[in-house]
Design a protein that fits this description.
- The protein has two domains: 63-223 and 316-360, no CATH class; 228-311, no CATH class.
- The chain contains 13 helices and 14 strands.
- The strands form five sheets. The chain has a three-stranded mixed sheet.
- By secondary structure, it is of the alpha+beta class.
- The longest helix is centred in the N-terminal third of the chain and has 32 residues, at 2-33.
- Bound molecules: zinc ion (ZN).
- Residues 131-133, 139-140, 142, 145-146 line the site of zinc ion.
């Protein structure tokens, strides 16, 4: 008889459980049927395991205070190869950055300009909560995220007998500019740099979100030798690559010949917009589709495919490393080189004073080159 009394409540629970299960199934079905309708954040959690923590984290620690930079002059760096956080002497870290971000054979003044740019980039990260991927690190060693870095032992492997000489050359450039960073209106600048401008650097808002007064496109006279690239793609390959990134463009083997049109260019020669089948994309996205070294390119259509003629290497914002080397060869000092590529900046040495300056708005960009 007891059983009869409890039966209805059991039924209710069972019913509720079934209803919940059904709802869950419907939700899952919806997620898999219409993945594109799910907001990106939700999709990240439901459909895939994020490889990196959701960034930027809502509250990032103040690295300047946490690591007591004022006293220690140390920087927390995440070594992505060894998967560990290393606390390093700030200037030693800059030596390791310059050692891999710029060819060691470049002119001394170019290496010095690079040292100041790399230091500015790193110190800015210390002040702004650090690397976007690894919380607790000011910078990581992944060039796709922060700046590349080479350790002493890897310098040894890479350069063998020349390692000591090369190290001294880089260390001289770094130590002769020790503590120097770029500021604009008293606030630390976002010292972006890239390998080669193709002859003209680009306004920041044409590549990233924000227009910054010191990241204006300027002429880069001495890009010598100019870095160029020719990329040939068959029509079949082109269709495949476009479909992989932009299926909504509806590009097919039949219509590919008339599917790509470089519609607009910036004054610098970089591609601004592209008509791609049924859609319109920005030039730098087509750059990604075909792995072009820069967005400064023209396109040629042949009987069998496409040929891209590319000038420059990287995003084109801020200092051009190749151009810096050219200016150094023409007698420019590192200070003149920096002031050429970063409009209206000053070189400042007071890192600790800088930590108290309220910053101007800055573009949310992570790559230092590319
Ligand atoms: Zn990073």
């Amino acid at each position: 008889m007891d059983q009869n009394k409890t039966q209805p409540s059991k039924r209710v629970i069972l019913l509720l459980a079934l209803v919940l299960l059904a709802l869950l199934l419907v939700l899952l079905l919806l997620v898999f049927l219409f993945p594109e309708s799910i907001p990106e954040t939700l999709e990240t959690y439901f459909l895939s395991v994020p490889t990196t923590p959701p960034t930027p984290a809502p509250t990032r620690i103040d690295l300047y205070t946490y690591y007591n930079f004022r006293e220690t002059q140390q920087i927390p760096v995440y070594d992505h190869r060894e998967d560990r956080l290393i606390i390093m002497d700030f200037e030693s870290y800059i030596i390791g950055v310059v050692g891999v971000e710029m060819p060691v054979a470049y002119e001394t003044e170019a290496l010095r300009a690079q040292a100041v740019a790399a230091r500015t980039y790193a110190f800015r990260k210390i002040l702004r909560g650090g690397c976007a991927t690894y919380e607790g690190a000011a910078c990581c060693t992944n060039s796709k995220c922060c700046q590349a870095f080479i350790s002493d032992s890897r310098m040894q492997e890479r350069w063998g007998d020349a390692a000591g000489m090369n190290y001294n050359r880089i260390a001289d450039a770094v130590m002769s500019t020790a503590g120097e960073v770029l500021v604009y209106n008293g606030a630390i600048a976002d010292a972006m740099f890239h390998a080669c401008s193709g002859g003209h650097t680009e306004d920041s808002e044409n590549v990233y979100a924000n227009a910054l007064p010191y990241l204006r496109g300027v002429e880069s006279l001495y890009e010598d030798p100019m870095r160029t690239q020719t990329v040939e793609v068959s029509f079949e390959e082109a269709v495949e690559k476009i479909r992989a990134s932009y299926p909504e463009a509806h590009v097919t083997d039949e219509n590919i010949r008339s599917s790509i049109e470089l519609s607009e260019f910036f004054d610098t020669g970089r591609v601004k917009t592209v008509r791609l089948g049924d859609i319109k994309i920005v030039g730098k996205k087509l750059r990604n589709v075909f792995d072009l070294q820069s967005a400064m390119f023209t396109m040629e259509t042949t009987d069998t495919g496409l040929i891209f003629h590319v000038k420059g290497y990287g995003h084109g914002v801020g200092l051009s490393q190749n151009g810096a080397n050219g200016y150094a060869k023409h007698g420019y000092t590192y200070e003149q080189i920096l002031k050429h590529y970063y409009t209206g900046v000053e070189i400042a040495k007071d890192l600790n004073g800088m930590a108290t300056v309220i910053e101007n708005a800055a573009p949310e960009v992570t790559p230092s080159h590319g």
